């Protein structure tokens, strides 16, 4: 009897524990069923009940940096200012301290609108109207936009107002720390973040970001349910676009070309620097320039790069190419001579004149380049089959886009040989009857400076994606356009232009051998198609040190007025080349230029 009695409570305890254990197991099984086995079904059920929500995970547009990694363009946080009209219309009630009831001071929407407008820079009545119009249309309205893309400072000031009906979804903005430095190349983006011009547009595939998406569950009162956030699409930042440009050199040359354009009364101008052995553009400064932070402050025609988009007649700078073609094709030698007066009729009906009056000179190719004789180069051109000259010009890059393929880039004009009349045959020998862009001309002189090997010009070093992979690296594969011997011969002739020419004293850089050529091309009137009276493009282009060329520099002015000849470009060229040699610490020549004869 005692044994039975003592066992009864123990048996009841075991039974109770078993029941509890069974219940717990049942709960666990059910929990596993809900959260694991049939999780997708329950999520679908919750979605059907309207409990799913999502938010955008914003990614940043990639940066643009110079050759040294200095930031030229970067993403910056901007914010939209959104309002809940239904709540805003009621104003804000502040309960008085120590009050025994819920009474307090109410600040109405008109006063609150004025506080907001003081931060956003809008008119107070305009902000007030946004809410009143929204409520008038729908008393239960919960959304209206007050302002888009306000700065971080403005966002913080608005947040400090502690207005519960305001929200500030972030947006990706764009900032250019150096303003107009390189602005014509960089381009800009619109208020919606879409690229509109320049490298921002051309290399958008590198810079563009992909916003992510996070899906989550929330209760009916808007509370996010813990553990329900799922990244359905990860945010991917844009890549970093590294340019060949040197920011400091670009800034200096930007100041220099602005000064030279203003001093000469020109419409516009450019200074271009190319590394001779790589084809990399180290600077391309233009004036007028555009500040990508505020592109609308600049006339639409000046927001792009005219260096790429506006071809011009290169004038006498082309004589170096005609000389190189004649030498390389075996049509004549450096010792060959022609007799040329300052004005002659050639080929039966073509009239060719020099810029200065002189008698019959027996010119060598060097002498033609030094005196820049149109008649002289025309007579040398007669020795070259015209198809041969045309084919070489194509190899030099005339008539085709550069490897950069910049937005809006022009291919210039190089008419087929079949379209050349007698006058065109001669004119093309000295840079008329055709047109080129600055990159095309610089690319041709890079070929001469680089031993006859043309390297594709480049503005981009590469694109580094968010995962570290690098793409878009420039091609370094060159094309032998003229022989090394020909390039050396022409380079020495251009050195003699620098030492024997009329601008020798204005361009000299102590310790360095220079090779240069000037050009003055007539300007075509876009309205009539005829040459514009007394209007010219003036150019000076050259490389240094001429005994071991490292950099090609070109200065181009559109319609200079105070000085209308190529002398207008000399001061800027001398200063630009001096700065380039300093910037890259180029070793002086150590030798002097051998003098070549002008006349035979």
Automatic annotation (TrEMBL):
Transmembrane helix is among the record's keywords: yes
Domain Penicillin-binding protein transpeptidase: 269-577
InterPro entries attached to this UniProt entry: Beta-lactam/transpept, Beta-lactam/transpept-like, PBP_dimer, PBP_dimer_sf, PCN-bd_Tpept
SUPFAM superfamilies in the record: beta-lactamase/transpeptidase-like, Penicillin binding protein dimerisation domain
Region Disordered: start-end pairs: 287-309
Domain Penicillin-binding protein dimerisation: 58-192
Gene3D superfamilies hit by this protein: 3.30.450.330, DD-peptidase/beta-lactamase superfamily (3.40.710.10), Penicillin-binding protein 2a (Domain 2) (3.90.1310.10)
Subcellular location: Membrane
Keywords: Membrane, Transmembrane, Transmembrane helix
Transmembrane region(s): 12-32
Family of this protein: Belongs to the transpeptidase family.
Listed name of the protein: Penicillin-binding protein 2
